[in-house]
Amino acid sequence: xxxxxxxxxxxxxxLVSRGELSALELVDAAIRRIEALEPSIHxxxxxxxxxxxxxxxxxxxxxxxxxxxxxxDLLPYPGQRCAMGSRxxxxxxxxxxxxxxxxxxxxxxxxxxxSTTSEFGLLGSTETLLEGVTHNPWDLTRSATGxxxxxxxxxxxxMVPLAHASDGGGSIRIPAAAxxxxxxxxxxxxxxxxxxxxxxxxxxxxxxxxxxxxxxLLLSLTEEVGGKAGPPVGYVDRPLARRLRIGFYSRTIMGDxxxxxxxxxxxRTIALCTELGHELIEAPPPEFDGPTLSTGFFAISAAALTExxxxxxxxxxxxxxxxxxxxxxLSLIDWYRGLPSDTFSRAMVSFEDAGHRMxxxxxxxxxxxxxxxxxxxxxxxxxxxxxxxxxxxRRTEKLAGYTPIHNIAGVPxxxxxxxxxxxxxxxxxxxxxxxxxxxxLLGLAYQLEQAAPWRxxxxxxxxx
Length: 464
Description:
By secondary structure, this protein is an alpha+beta fold.
């Protein structure tokens, strides 16, 4: 069980394809790891091990045949619960998947269950009144962040080699940074449809993984060929062979400087990229109206939630209340109802302008580097959904100081776990590139993985 937990998805699938292990043996080993680790970490919202074992016994085919996998509990999967972290949907069983989940099945992945998320993916910590608290395996008193905290905690601890994650403003990259994983966010329109969307097409789906090749292979298996994102990426399977112009900056969208340990990791990343032969250029930080963009993000989320609340009122025969939605969710809806009627349209205009300016900024470089998160992994309760709205918004602005602009601009980005702080917690280095340049980022990631390996760096609570 321990030996298997140290293998990435490509290596596990290779064992099955060579006949050295069966898919069922891989799945059973993952179930044992989950049963051993889950009481401490709580990364799973639900599971169906019986269905997973039955599918594995049928000897699935595909490039990742037999590899155990988790889906974030925002995405429907046939026959499994999809609660979205909300008590209102605790009994919601999905009847259908999507073109995206069909691709996952075709790849041969075995979905064991659903990973935890904040309610509707709103907050950057995976703590809900429905599921309880997901712990960071590096320090159980700390948050795995969010909203893909369950996915990141599961992969970091070795339950599964990779897991689905989604990102509307940093929710792949921030948990990857907090848990010491590789977190890649494809650009807008790159993947086949998940059947879900946020206004302005902010949402991206992909995965968190221990290795670059797992993420690269899954991207090739789920990308939309012939879509609007440009030529297909395909399977990027080797390091980049050219020199890059890499711009770097350190201040967040809100104008904040990173904590000293994070700033030190940025300096080390700059030095490493220089050693690899790239040209590093100190760039002025991209300038945006941070408070306006923050208001826009929360207004867009609140508008969608207001529609959900109205729909459910008709179905329930009563208004949605505190027994259904968390305090933060309800307060966000109340706040939005009190805003001017043109708030949503103004948010969309501000996003259009910010996205254009970020894309223009990226045009000046091959890749742009900054920290993933400006602060250390925070204590559980810091982003509890029971805190007041203003406190949560201010703390979210601090946490997600770098990542949302890439969703707005529709560009690919990644968090790479190159270094750790003096206290041992992981620090992510964030790279972004122009639209259509996923292959450039992945090629750079392979280089970084070879130069500063992280795959054997494990948290204190793990299967190793």
